[in-house]
Amino acid sequence: MVPLLLVLLLALILFGAGFAVKILWWIAIAVLVVWLLGFVMRSTHAGGGRGRWYRW
To answer: Measured between alpha carbons, how far is 35 from 23 in angstroms, rounded to an integer?
Structure first.
C-alpha cells in the first residue's frame, strides 16, 4: 500500500510541476513579446536618436 501511495504522490507532484512549468513558459513568451515590441515601438529623442523604452 505504501509504494502505491508513493507512486501516486510522485505522479501528483510531477503533474503539478508540469502544469507550473507550462504556465511559466507562457509567461516567458508573453514577456518576450512585450520586450520585442518595445524595440519596435520605442520613441525618438529630440536629437533624432532612439531612446530606450525602459528606465534602467
So the answer is: 18
Low-confidence ranges of the chain (pLDDT < 50): none
Rounded CA gap, 41 and 50, in Å? 10
**Rounded-to-integer distance, Cα 41 and Cα 17, Å:** 36
- The DSSP call for residue 46 is T
What is the dihedral angle through the alpha carbons of 24, 29, 32, 34, rounded to the nearest 10 degrees? -100
Q: How many degrees, rounded to 5, is the angle at CA 11 between CA 30 and CA 27?
A: 5
Residue type, 46: A
Q: What pTM was computed for the model? A: 0.55
